Amino acid sequence: MSTLDLLQLGFVRQALLAGAVLALLAGLLGPLVVGRGMAFAVHGTSELSFAGGAGALLLFGAGAVGWGALVGAVVVALVFGALGLAAHERDSVIGVLLSFGLGLGVLFQSLYTGRSANKFGLLVGQIVGVDTGDLVSLAVTGVVVVGVLGLAYRPLLFASLDPTMAAARGVPVRALSVAFAVLLGATTALGVQIVGALLVLSLLITPAAAAARLTASPLRATVLAVVFAEVAVLGGIVLSLAPGLPISPFVAGIAFATYVICRVAGSLRTRRRASRTRVPASSTATSTSSQSALASQSPRPRS
Amino acid sequence: MTGPAVSLTGAELRRGPRTLWSGLELDVAPGEFVAVLGPNGSGKTTLLQVLLGLLPLSSGQVRVHGAPPARGSAAVGYVPQQRALDPLTPLRGRDLVGLGLDGHRFGPGLRGRARRREQVHRALAQVDALDYADAPVGSLSGGEQQRLRVAQALVGDPSLLLADEPLLSLDLARQREVVELVDRRRREHDTAVVFVTHELNPVLPVVDRVLYLVDGRFRIGTPEEVMTSANLSQLYRTDVEVVRVRGRILVVGAEDAPVHHDVPEEVGVR
Ligand SMILES: Nc1ncnc2c1ncn2[C@@H]1O[C@H](COP(=O)(O)OP(=O)(O)O)[C@@H](O)[C@H]1O
Ligand SMILES: [Mg+2]
User: Fold this and answer.
1) What is the pLDDT of residue A114?
2) More confident: B155 or A122
3) Is residue A128 scored above 80 in pLDDT?
4) Are B98 and B52 in the same domain?
């Protein structure tokens, strides 16, 4: 069957729909994840979501995987959220929990004796297996995430990027950190079931990291991250159809290519800007910008 | 506004076993410029945290505009003690200033966007930061970031400005600009200013009173009253000499005092 024929199939359409919603959520949350320096936390969350799903599969069967993944992700996201933004401590705690979760997940999987597709799905995703129930939980999560972001976006951005000042202005930094962790956990858990634990980073981090290379405006970065995530997911699904391969390599490949292109484009632009203006517009060590930065920091007045 | 912008009575603050200061009595009138001086660790930042409502007094009373300090009050502007922004912070200068205006508000914030843009623009213009308002904040020099911080504090039109070492890492010309800006602000808008600084001289031409904190002891008064050899010797419990040279005050003999190690340079400016 050609790709076009495959696109007519019901389960393919469901996969595309699920992918589109997931990419929207990932694109919306991604810039905040990157801004908070939480890429590693997302990785840890997805591994523990995998462990939760695998544990539920072993104990309660295939029907409980979704709940297991959700519980695993949200519990650990709450732990990471409660650790706040002290990056050094957070990273080591994440490393500790991540490796433990991965070990547990592998143990659960090797003890499980049912269908092997169920096992493998949590690592590489089961997007063609998306059913109506999955779509409903995706839709619910989507509405909650969009709603919370709509109400709390400004304080969340403030608390994420400028926490000292935000606290001084009365923003409930801790509570927002926890709320964000829950949103992130729920999105990660869905991502683990649809695209697999290995691909979650490709959706939550790579598009936002690529967007950050092109713009420092939070609004534009969010729009770009959503677009990049959609292109990666929908493009990846479509490209995977004809060869009948898993979607992971395609989604990850498109996301990675986007990132490389944005990085190159971003550094070309900064270099142009730095050579055009007197004001250092970039931290890259072009000679003009480092000289004028030195000049403006020198305590010695020039007269 | 008739009452004081800030009023501390019998204020004491302990941190663990240490008493940072106690028996502090200070009223700051609207439009008054008070400089807070003292060595590192003497509790200057902590004092601002109390005024921001982030930290309770151990005993005594604090009032800001006649009421207990409220976290996030729009009437209080704050310039935090400088920590350079992360080089990769995904914000432009105008976003940082905008967060100072309404970053603490919940809701989608779709209304009044034109007015908001206008306010942010005016604050950026005030500190002469329009040239780099669209550059990523992390790519700016310390001085440029500091001017954005001042704009961020002033954008909400506060009647009390709390600034924590805002002159740090600025060259002398920029220091003078920031001081003039704050001075103009309080003259035109009657904004009370509590200005923590490591160096008295840049603010000397505009300062009304000085609060000098050393190791739990303090003096309050005009620079002439406070900055004497006798006073500072008592504060530091060692022989300290205060010398006045060409309208500047030099403190000699106190470790970590607002001394001017770079005297020739400073004198050379004049
Ligand atoms: N969170 C804290 N818990 C306990 N002690 C603190 C805390 N923060 C600051 N301190 C102590 O309070 C003292 C005053 O600090 P600070 O107000 O920052 O001084 P300054 O701004 O004058 O340099 C310091 O000695 C510091 O050790
Ligand atoms: Mg301090």
Assistant:
1) 78
2) B155
3) no
4) no
Task: Let me know if residue A240 belongs to a domain.
Answer: no
Instruction: Establish if B260 belongs to a structural domain.
Output: no
Domain count, chain A: 1
Residues 133-172 of B with CB under 8 A from A: 134-144, 152, 169, 171-172
Q: Cα torsion at A126, A130, A135, A138 (round to 10°)? A: 0
Q: What is the domain extent for residue B129?
A: 85-157
Pocket-forming residues, ligand 1, beta carbon under 6 Å: B 15-16, 20, 38, 40-46
pLDDT tier for residue A118 given thresholds of 50, 70 and 90: low
For B48, name the nearest residue in chain A, comparing CA atoms only: A168
Task: Tell me the ipTM for this assembly.
Answer: 0.85
Query: pLDDT tens digits, residue range A215-228?
Result: 999 999 999 999 99
From CA A205, how far away is CA A186, in angstroms rounded?
A: 16
On whether both B49 and B177 belong to a single domain, the answer is yes
Q: In what order do the strands lie in the sheet with B217-221?
A: B76-79, B160-164, B192-196, B33-37, B209-214, B217-221
> How far apart are alpha carbons A19 and B182 in whole angstroms?
53
A218:B95 CB<8 A: yes
Number of domains in chain B: 2
* CATH number assigned to the domain comprising residue A8: 1.10.3470.10
Q: Compute the distance between CA of residue B145 and CA of residue B52 in angstroms, rounded to an integer.
A: 22
The answer to whether residue A277 sits within a structural domain is no
Contact: B131, A279; criterion CB under 8 Å: yes
pLDDT value at residue B126: 87
Rg of chain A over CA atoms, in angstroms? 21
Whether residues B100 and B206 share a domain: the answer is no
- Assign A277 a pLDDT band (cuts: 50, 70, 90): low
List the domain range (segments joined by +) for residue A156: 3-199
What number of other Cβ atoms are within 10 A of residue A284's Cβ?
15
Which residue's CA lies nearest to atom 1 of ligand 1? B15
Among A34, A154, A205, the strongest candidate for a mutation testing the B interface, having the largest count of B CBs within 10 A, is A154
Shared domain check, B90 and B106: yes
Q: Which residues of B touch A171 (CB under 8 A)?
A: 72, 103-104
> B45 alpha carbon to ligand 1 midpoint, in Å?
7
In a domain, A232, yes or no: no
Same-domain status, B139 and B202 = no
Contact B158, B74 (CB under 8 A): yes
Instruction: List the one residue out of A130, A180, A156 whose CA is nearest residue A9.
Output: A130
A241 lies in some domain: no
**Residue indicated by tokens 């003497």:** B42
- Which residue has the least CA distance to atom 25 on ligand 1? B41
Identify whether residues B198 and B165 lie together within a single domain.
Answer: yes
**Residue A262 CB neighbours (<10 A):** 21
**DSSP label of B15:** E
State which residue of chain B sits closest to A284, comparing Cα positions: B139
Enumerate the residues of chain A whose CB falls inside 8 A of the CB of residue B102: 154
Q: Which atom of ligand 1 sits closest to the CA of residue B16?
A: 4
